[in-house]
Write a structure and sequence with these properties.
The complex is a heterodimer of chains A (about 250) and B (about 475). The mean pLDDT of chain A is about 95. Chain A contains 8 helices and 12 strands. Chain A has a domain of about 170 residues: 4-Layer Sandwich (Purple Acid Phosphatase, chain A, domain 2), CATH 3.60.21. The relative contact order of chain A is 0.18. In chain A, helix 3 crosses helix 4 and helix 7 runs antiparallel to helix 8. In chain A, the strands form 2 sheets. Chain A has a 6-stranded mixed beta sheet. Chain B is an alpha/beta fold. Chain B folds into 3 domains: about 80 residues, Phosphorylase Kinase, domain 1 (2-Layer Sandwich), CATH 3.30.200; about 220 residues, Orthogonal Bundle (Transferase(Phosphotransferase), domain 1), CATH 1.10.510; about 150 residues, HUPs (Rossmann fold), CATH 3.40.50.620. A 6-stranded antiparallel beta sheet of chain B has the order 1-2-3-4-6-5. In chain B, strands 13-12-11-14-15 form a 5-stranded parallel beta sheet, with helices on both faces. Chain B has a two-stranded antiparallel sheet with strand order 7-10. The longest helix of chain B has 23 residues. Chain B is globular, with a radius of gyration of 25 Å. The N and C termini of chain B lie far apart (about 75 Å). The chains are: A alpha/beta (about 250), B alpha/beta (about 475). Chains A and B meet through strand 7, strand 8 and strand 9 of A and helix 1 of B.
Chain lengths: ~250, ~475
């Protein structure tokens, strides 16, 4: 079974369409969405409907902090740009779309895989996994061999050996990485809808459950169109520019 | 919380006849420090290749070295291809019986040859060129071996060197599982490069150092740095240079000593910058530029050694980019020039193109080549009417053609000027000779002139078109303005 792991879609229709088309070309059979379907981007309704359609077809989707905020209001930990978009997003979604976001599970466990938006140690505290220390904390908190999470927008890979040694790795797009069964792995595919590593191309990852190979992908999409929509919606200029710069 | 994701590795005793994941164990071939090797066959299958299964030895309880090394090999070997590595077939992870099944190579490793050392110099050079060729292929696949030693080198029937055991290797594009695991330098004591001693694991030139140790040993019958087992002993190579091979055997050719000692330089920047460049020199002894290294008969004096020791104390090696990048940054350019027949305007255009490439590739080395056409059958008239050798005549013309290039290099980059070589090949078929030469010397880029407009050339067909069609590398065909 080949999985597509897509996270931090952030209401970016152009990016999501490009990622899903790319995943199809890779022979992906199952989708896992790791949260943050809304926030920042101009088309929250379209993205929520898209995720819902996939879930109806058997896909897995967990809740992100932006999804929770769209339903319940901004969290105190959110940055200014994000807070500004929360109320606007809420107004864009109908009751059914809000209900869907509200009902999303915080995490899903499937065999030796854990799917969660932020981390395994306090999933609703929305703490970021940005260092080896955070990664160890998360991997210690679960007996799942593989943790897939989002929240952090830059693609990253952490691993923890049986002797407790942790390593991190910045993945190279398109190169399959065999995930050894001998250690724990924490996979951050990187944001599809708002990349922040200086490359505007959308991020996602695919995982072959039989061969154990993980591949990070970068998919170029019409980020100028997505950016223009953000501007046209009257959302903060900084957010529109971010899609152009990939920062 | 338990951080061990899988069940503990099973320490089962394997026996002939047993079947593991569809492979039947036929014969126990070898027990090494880290692994057992079994000849195996696929049950019910007929593989075109004889197969071998490598099973890690788990020495009671936890043994990170053999487990992580095996994980690394399981990760890297399947990503490799080509004649210089054993073909990967299957693997089994530590949740069951861990193993790797791969192509079984016939014959012994290079280890056996060491019993006969010192070997004749030409054989040492031949072996060195083959191993360097294999290393370059590996580096181009983004992998640094980091454990080049006699027992990890095998040969195919045609002499092609094959590298085995990737348990300490490092892949540019995959996580380095060993990086965090150990607090001691990783490698095999006698062969470890100075930068490996200092925990640098991504420099392909480390493999050239190890190859230098190996060639030194084959040449002299002695190890350049002994077989230290302590970190202190390993660090000695950072400041103490080896006794030159000439001290062991006065018949050592100076060019070979030059190459071996260059491999053993402490600073990677002073070694050859790619394995292909070393292979090139080992195959073209007459073109090796000799320095003070070539005639050295003793090691450095105590003052010099002390100075180096002091320098090594606080020295941190520079971090390197990656393996394939280093190899690509040091390309071999081949200018195939028909100095005797081509139009002068075209010759000038070819030279200008070469010059532009040298400007953009400061690490490049340039080989200038011309082909002297000889008949397939019968004796050739090797001496022209004036009595001078035709061969020498062509060499003179070739050097004359390259003179402006050399002059500019000497003024701006004298080191690169020293790396320009000249070759006159005698062959019936110019295109075939150029393609063969490029392949054998791992040339990255051929520059040559297009077919001239002469009627005879049109009749014979285009050499450049054939080179473009047959070559494995990039080919630039230069046309002069008149020809367009």
């Amino acid at each position: 079974m080949k999985l597509a792991l897509v996270t931090d879609l952030h209401a970016n229709r152009e990016a999501v369409e490009a990622v899903l088309a790319h995943a199809r070309s890779q022979g992906v059979q199952q989708h896992v969405f790791l949260g943050d379907y809304v926030g920042y981007g101009a088309e929250p309704g379209w993205v929520v409907d898209c995720v819902q359609a996939h879930v109806a077809g058997g896909a897995i989707a967990v809740m992100g902090n932006h999804d929770a905020a769209a339903v319940q209001g901004a969290q105190p930990t959110m940055v200014q740009d994000a807070r500004e978009v929360v109320a606007w997003t809420h107004g864009q979604l109908d009751a059914a779309q809000l209900a869907l976001l509200d009902q999303l599970p915080i995490s899903v466990r499937d065999g030796d895989c854990l799917y969660v938006h932020a981390n395994a140690y306090a999933p609703t505290g929305w703490g970021y996994v940005t260092s080896r220390l955070d990664a160890v904390r998360s991997m210690h908190a679960t007996d799942a061999r593989l943790t897939f999470c989002g929240h952090v927008h830059e693609p990253l890979l952490f691993h923890l050996s049986g002797t407790g040694k942790v390593g991190d790795f910045t993945p190279v797009p398109g190169v399959p990485i065999p995930l050894s069964a001998q250690r724990q792995w924490l996979v951050i595919p990187g944001s599809a809808g708002q990349p922040r590593d200086g490359n505007p191309a959308a991020c996602y990852a695919s995982f072959d459950t039989v061969s154990g190979e993980l591949t990070y992908h970068r998919v170029p999409y019409d980020h100028e169109a997505a950016s223009a929509k953000v501007r046209a919606a009257g959302l903060p200029e900084r957010i529109a520019q971010r899609l152009i710069d990939g920062h | 919380m338990d951080t061990e994701p899988g069940p503990a590795p099973r320490a089962t005793r394997l026996a002939a006849g047993q079947v593991i994941d569809g492979f039947r164990l036929d014969e126990h071939l070898h027990q090494g420090g880290m692994a057992n090797l079994w000849a195996v066959t696929r049950v019910g299958g007929d593989d075109p290749l004889p197969l071998i299964m490598k099973v890690p030895r788990i020495k009671g309880g936890e043994d990170p070295t053999s487990i992580v090394g095996f994980e690394v090999e399981q990760m890297i070997l399947p990503s490799l291809s080509g004649p210089h590595v054993p073909k990967f077939v299957a693997k089994g992870d530590f949740t069951g019986q861990p193993f790797i099944v791969m192509e079984r190579l016939a014959g012994d490793s290079l280890r056996k040859r060491f019993d006969d050392a010192p070997l004749p110099a030409d054989e040492v050079a031949r072996l060195g060129a083959r191993i360097a060729t294999a290393l370059h292929d590996l580096h181009r696949q983004h992998v640094v071996h980091l454990d080049v030693k006699p027992s990890n080198i095998m040969f195919r029937a045609d002499g092609t060197a094959v590298l085995v055991d990737f348990g300490l290797s490092r892949h540019d594009f995959l996580p380095d599982l060993l990086d965090e695991e150990f607090e001691l330098p990783m490698g095999t004591g006698p062969y470890m490069s100075p930068e490996q001693v200092q925990f640098i694991r991504n420099d392909p030139r480390s493999d050239l150092f190890a190859l230098g140790v190996l060639l030194y040993h084959l040449l002299s019958g002695e190890r350049p740095f002994g077989a230290p087992t302590s970190v202190r002993g390993l660090r000695q190579r950072l400041y103490q240079d080896p006794l030159p091979p000439l001290a062991w055997r006065p018949d050592c050719p100076p060019w070979l000593q030059e190459l071996v000692l260059r491999c053993l330089e402490v600073q990677p920047d002073l070694r050859h910058q790619s394995a292909a460049q070393l292979a090139f020199d080992l195959q073209n002894p007459a073109q090796v530029v000799l320095t003070e290294r070539a005639t050295r008969r003793t090691r450095s004096g105590r003052v010099q050694t002390l100075r180096r020791w002091f320098k090594a104390l606080g020295a941190e090696p520079a971090e390197r980019g990656n393996a394939a990048h280093q190899a690509a940054r040091s390309p071999i350019l081949l200018a195939a020039v028909d100095v005797a027949n081509a139009d002068p305007g075209l010759l000038e255009e070819v030279r200008d193109t070469v010059q532009r490439l040298l400007h953009t590739e400061p690490g490049a080395r340039l080989a200038c080549l011309t082909v002297m056409k000889v008949n397939r059958i019968g004796m050739d008239e090797l001496v022209d009417k004036d009595g001078g050798s035709l061969h020498v005549g062509l060499l003179v013309q070739l050097k004359h053609w390259a003179r402006p290039l050399l002059q500019e290099l000497e003024a701006t980059r004298p080191e690169q000027a020293g790396r320009v070589t000249f070759h006159v090949l005698e062959a019936p078929d110019a295109a075939g000779a150029i393609v063969d030469y490029a392949r054998k010397n791992q040339v990255d880029h051929v520059v040559m002139g297009a077919r001239s407009s002469g009627g005879l050339r049109r009749y014979l067909g285009s050499v450049s078109a054939e080179v473009v069609a047959q070559s494995d590398c990039t080919v630039t065909v230069v046309r002069s303005i008149v020809q367009r």
